[in-house]
Amino acid sequence: MNNKQTDLLSFDQQHVWHPYTSMTEPLPSYLVESAIGVFINLASGEKLIDGMASWWSVLHGYNHPKLNAALIEQCNKVSHVMFGGLTHEPAIDLCKTLIEISPAPLQKVFLSDSGSVAVEVAIKMAFQYWISKGKTSKNKMLTVKNGYHGDTLATMAVCDPVTGMHHMFEQVLNKHYFAPAPQIKIDQPWQAEDTVELEQLFIAHHDSIAAFIIEPIVQGTGGMRMYHPNYLKACRDLCTQYDVLFIADEIATGLGRTGKLFACEWANISPDIMCLGKTLTGGYITLAATLCTNDVAEVISSGEAGCFMHGPTFMGNPLACAVANASLSLLLDGNWQQQVQAISSYLSKNLLPLSTHQRVYDTRILGSIGVVECTQKVNMSRIQKRFVELGVWIRPFGKLIYIMPPYVITAEQLACLIKAITTILEEDDCFITET
Ligand SMILES: Cc1ncc(COP(=O)(O)O)c(C=O)c1O
Question: Which has the closest alpha carbon to 119: 283, 285, 277?
Answer without folding.
Answer: 277
